[in-house]
Amino acid sequence: MPQTYQFDHLLSAGGWLSPGCVSVDDGGIITAISKDPDSNAEKLSGACIPGMPNLHSHAFQRALAGLTEIGGGAENNFWSWQKVMYEFLTILTPEDVEAIAAQLYVEMLKGGYTSVGEFHYLHHGPSGTAYDDPTEMSNRIFSAARQTGIALSHLPVLYTQGGFGDQPPLNGQKRFLHDIDSFVRLVSELQTRCRSLPCTETGMAFHSLRAVSPAMMTEALDIITEGPVHIHIAEQMREVTQCLEWSRQRPVEWLFDTHHIDNRWCLVHATHMTKEETASIAKSGAVAGLCPSTEANLGDGLFPLPGHLEQGGSFGLGSDSNTSVDAADEIRLLEYGQRLHLQQRNIAAAGDGLSTGASLFQAALRGGATALAQPVGSLRIGRQADMVLLDTDHPVLAGRSGDAILDTWIFAGGRAVIKDVFAAGRRVVRDGRHAEEDRIADTYRQTVRRLSH
Ligand SMILES: [Zn+2]
After folding, report:
1. Which CATH number applies to 3-50+379-437: 3.40.50.740, 2.60.40.350, 2.30.40.10, 3.40.50.1980?
2. What's the CA-to-centroid distance between 23 and ligand 1, angstroms?
3. How confident is the model over 342-354, as pLDDT tens digits?
4. Is residue 166's pLDDT more than 90?
5. What was the pLDDT predicted at 83?
6. What pLDDT, on the 0 to 100 scale, is given for residue 72?
7. Mean pLDDT of the residues in the chain
8. Which fold would CATH assign to domain 52-372?
9. For residue 319, how far is its CA from the centre of ligand 1 (angstroms)?
10. Nearby residues of 17 by Cβ (< 8 Å), 6 or more positions away
11. Which phi and psi (to 5°) does residue 361 adopt?
C-alpha cells in the first residue's frame, strides 16, 4: 500500500526539510516530497537521510575479518593476505557463501548502506569445475540480497589468468576462471533475469589488469554493452611495477590508452596514480571506487583525493573486504587519511564554511548511484525510498540541526545512532534490529564455526 512518512528532519535532494514528508508507492519509489505536515502520514521522530550505496563488496571475505591481524615480518602485506584468503575460499560451499552474504547484508543495512555492488569472482567448485547450474554462486548472492532487502548490483567478474602476460593460474585462482563464451553466457543470463526482479542490476567486472587477458577484455566489452563495468585498477605498487614491465605503462595509463572510459566505469582502488592519471579519471566521468577501511587494513596506500576533487572527479565508497561494515566509518577514514597525510583539517569540504561530512556524503551518494546504475542515492521523486533514520534523541546528536547532524553521525556517532532503515520503502531495520537478523545470524554462526574446524 502506498505510504507517507513524516520525519522531524529530512535530507531531500533540495536540502534539509523540517519537518519533511516522503510518499512511497507499492514499488518502493518516491512519489512526493514535501515540507508541509501531513495529517495522514506516519510520524517518525529523528533525521532521515538517504541510504548510502556501497559500490564494492566481496561478501565471503566478511568471515575472514579479524583472522589476518598477526605479525609476520616485512613480507606481511597485501600479497601474504591474499594467500590466506585463497586458502580460506577453497573450502566454501554455495550454502556457506549465502549464509555469509546474508549476515553481511544485514550488517550493511544496520550500518547505513541500502544497496551494494557485489564484485563476484567465486564462480565455480573447489577444483575449478563449473557447477551444474553455472549461475549457482550468483544465485546465492541474489538470495542473500532478497532475504535482507538490500538492493543488489551484481558484478560477475572476468578472471582469465594468474598474472600479467598470460601467466598460468595458481590452484587458489581456479574457482575464478572463465573463458569468454562461458562468461558472456553467465552475464547475459543474469541480466535477463534482473529485468524481472526489483532492485537488482547486473553489470560486469574485470578483476584487474593482471588477471584478465587484454583480448578477452576487449571481447567482453564488445559483446556486453549494457550495465556498469567495474575493475580493480592500481591497488598496490607491485601491481604498478609489474604493469610497467609488461606494457611500459602504468595501469590507469594503459586502461585509458586502450579503452574508452566513461561513467559506465568504476575504477576501484585507483590508489597509485600520477597527476596525469588522476586527471584522466576525473575528466572521464568514471567513478573512483574508494574503500578506505580495506585500503588501510591491507596497507594499500592513499587515494589522491584533493587532486581528484579539484578536477571535478566523482567517487563512491565500498566496504570491499568487509572488515568494517559502517558507512560513517568509510567517510570518516577517507577524510582522516588525508588529514594525517597533509597535516591539515577539513580537506574534503566543498568550500569555506561548508560541512566536510555533508560534502563527502553527498559526493559518495552521487558516485555510488552512478556506479551501481540504480535509482538510489537521493531522496527525490522517482528514486528508490532508501532511507536511514538517525536517532536525534541519542545524546551525541542533542542540539544538532542541518549538516551538523551529518558531521556528528560521521565523526562522532556512527552506526550507534542509526534507528530505522528503509530499503525501497520497506522498513527492514526497526529500532536497530533487522526483521530477519536472529535467523540469519544463527545460520551464519553455524557456518563459521564449521569453517573454523
Ligand atoms: Zn575488491
Report:
1. 2.30.40.10
2. 36
3. 999 999 999 999 9
4. yes
5. 78
6. 79
7. 95
8. TIM Barrel (3.20.20)
9. 9
10. 9, 10, 33, 34, 35
11. -60, -50
